[in-house]
Amino acid sequence: MLIPEQIQLMAILRSLIQLTESEANQAVRIFQLSTLNQGEFFVRAGDIPQTIGFVISGILRLYYVDDGGNESTKSFCDENSFVAAYSALLMRQPSRLFIQALEDSKILVADYSTYRSLSESQIKLQQLNCKIAESLFIKKERRESALLLDDAKTRYLSFLEEYSGLEVRLKQHHIASYLWMTPVTLSRIRAQLKSL
Known about the structure:
The protein is an alpha+beta fold. A hairpin with a 5-residue loop joins strand 4 and strand 5 (about 70-75). It has helices at about 5-15, 20-30, 85-90, 110-120, 125-150, 150-160, 170-180, 185-195, and strands at about 30-35, 40-45, 50-55, 60-65, 70-75, 80-85, 100, 105-110.
């Protein structure tokens, strides 16, 4: 019998790719429910990650810390998002990334080697993995071009569009870190937009 969280994952998988009931069941059964309290880590820099996650509720922040202790936010993962330190996971190397819960969060977690073995036996899961990889590549390329080409206001407006509804759930310094600007600059942009 599937738990409600696995049924939620099944609905998302079936919205992305045509899976039979049996195929979807097989995929979601390898995911087990886990919780993270606010401030707890899914992955810490230096860990060699072994798992992938699917966010049922809550928000996770993916970020880097440089030698000076400065944090740079890579992205946020909220409900119905897959989360992992992907490159470290694929290369079986220590992560350079932290993944931390910004809210109390529920996550379905699967051992990556188990998921990979299942994928190798199911062509539809291989197609799903390809779709996920393509969407991550598009997201990465858009983010890089925004940081290189867009002004601060445009980056903020793009953030509001990409992470619709998250602004009220995130701290200002986390948003500013993601947008590569100071909290003061972010406050100024918000004030300008309110006055329009």
